[in-house]
Write a structure and sequence with these properties.
- A four-stranded mixed beta sheet has the order 1-2-3-4.
- It has nine helices and four strands, in the order H-H-H-H-H-H-H-H-E-E-H-E-E.
- It has one domain (5-218): Hypothetical protein af1432, CATH 1.10.3210.10.
- The chain is of the alpha+beta class and 220 residues long.
- The chain is globular.
- The protein has helices spanning 5-9, 12-28, 35-51, 56-68, 80-95, 99-110, 122-132, 150-157, 185-205, and strands spanning 158-166, 171-178, 209-214, 217-218.
Length: 220
């Protein structure tokens, strides 16, 4: 049975896990990981594959993986990629998804988190790019700039964030406008260098070159 993105989004079970996972991360002081984040990941991952000419099936699986990729946080932040992949297997299998499609989704989810991430296939590569480039002010929950930690400062300083793909030049570029009153450019690299290198590997898996532009300066 071909399970669609719309079917996944309408699942109250999945929505419950996303909501509870985000509540746990909020209690731990992490940035927003709720529907705004997962929906953005779903849409961006699919858009990347669409612009590169991948078939609709791959794009739909990328949407599903993007939407479900953080449900493992309902168990614990640590190893949430692997936990989430196991949870997604149970959910999607019970929904009647074809095993090959289940495998593609859980592979992407299981390989998306920084310490163990790797773009093992195009769906995983697209998810990594969509997830790791979601830097924006609206993800910051803390409303007091005086008590920001470095993660809060970096996200709050991001006044504009855009991921653009040029199929002809074979480049994918994260363009950021950072307010340096809140965060120095070096702070961004302190927090996100590992993620940017992971984005480079993900881009290479898709035959692209990853570029980073901050305040009009090409830094990668």
């Amino acid at each position: 049975m071909f399970i669609t993105y719309d079917m996944v989004r309408q699942s109250q079970e999945i929505r419950t896990y996303i909501t509870q996972a985000d509540q746990s991360l909020s209690a731990l002081g992490f940035t927003e990981h709720s529907f705004a984040h997962v929906t953005r990941c779903a849409e961006y991952a699919a858009r990347i594959l669409e612009q590169l000419g991948y078939p609709e099936r791959d794009r739909e699986l990328a949407r599903i993986a993007g939407y479900m990729h953080d449900i493992g946080n309902v168990v614990n932040r640590h190893d949430h990629a692997q936990t989430g992949a196991v949870m997604a297997f149970r959910i999607l299998d019970n929904m009647g998804m074809d095993p090959a499609d289940v495998a593609a989704v859980i592979t992407a989810i299981g390989h998306h988190d920084d310490p163990t991430a790797f773009p093992v296939n195009p769906v995983a590569a697209a998810l990594i790019l969509a997830d790791k480039t979601d830097v924006r002010r609206s993800r910051v929950r803390n409303k007091d700039p005086h008590s920001f930690d470095i993660h809060d400062r970096v996200n709050y300083a991001a006044e504009r964030s855009e991921l653009g793909l040029d199929p002809e030049q074979r480049t994918v570029t994260l363009s950021l406008s950072i307010n340096t009153e809140f965060c120095a450019v070096m702070d961004y690299f302190e927090i996100f260098l590992e993620r940017m290198l992971l984005c480079r590997r993900a881009a290479e898996r898709l035959g692209l070159t990853f570029k980073l532009d901050i305040n009009g300066l090409a830094l990668l």
